[in-house]
Amino acid sequence: MSDSSIDSSKRTWLIASGCAGAVGGVATAVPFVSSFQPSEKAKAAGAAVEVDISDLKPGEKITAEWRGKPIWIMRRTPEQLAELPQLDGQLADPKSERTAYPTPAYAKNETRSIKPDVLVVIGICTHLGCSPVDKLQAGPQTSLPDDWKGGFLCPCHGSTFDLAGRVFKNKPAPDNLEVPAHQYLTDTRLLIGEDKKA
To answer: Contacts by 101-110 with C-beta closer than 8 Å and gap 24+?
Structure first.
């Protein structure tokens, strides 16, 4: 018997254990790579959230979630934008100067937004934490003035907000709806919870 003869049982065992090791390596790598994405717990704790607004049409609003809070994203029509400056005299803080809910510098403008047509606010009333309801249609409606231009109504205690999230005077809510930190990754993708200027 020569020294170079091949033991087929050892060869089979080596091939089988090599294949098992490769499968084990892949099985270990997949969860490791997927762990780079934020977990649900991390998202709830404040990890930024991406939102696609490519299908958002003028006059429509969608709701995303960040830190367990509803984030309202609305694309306002040119007509809705034109109404905003006319409401200043009826608002408690038209220029977003109060500091309880500081407004980011990029939203300290008439539209309270980076892009004039896209509103991004936290949909929680600043009075007692209720969630206001959409009253986007202009005109007389129950619990609203006859000259209503569209906005949001908190059904709990009657606070009203315009389409920039600014609270009207003499209402229980002490402040405008909060504008969260956010930025545009592209023209149609928003990142809620982070901004490059912070």
So the answer is: 101/126, 101/175, 101/176, 101/177, 101/178, 103/176, 103/178, 103/179, 104/179, 104/181, 104/195, 104/197, 104/198, 105/197, 106/195, 106/197, 107/179, 110/84, 110/85, 110/164
- Cβ atoms of residues 42 and 27 within 8 Å: no
**CA neighbours within 13 Å on the CB side: how many for 185?**
13
- The enclosing H or E element of 51 equals strand 49-52
Q: Report the Cα 126 to chain-centroid distance in Å.
A: 18
Structure tokens at 94: 């038209």
pLDDT tens digit sequence for 32-51? 555 555 555 555 556 899 99
Rounded Cα–Cα distance for residues 175 and 168 (Å): 9
d(CA 96, CA 100): 10
2: three-class secondary structure by DSSP: coil
Pairing of strands 151-153, 160-162: antiparallel
Q: In the chain, pLDDT over 70 holds for what percent of residues?
A: 82
Torsion of CA 64, 101, 111, 81, to 10 degrees: 70
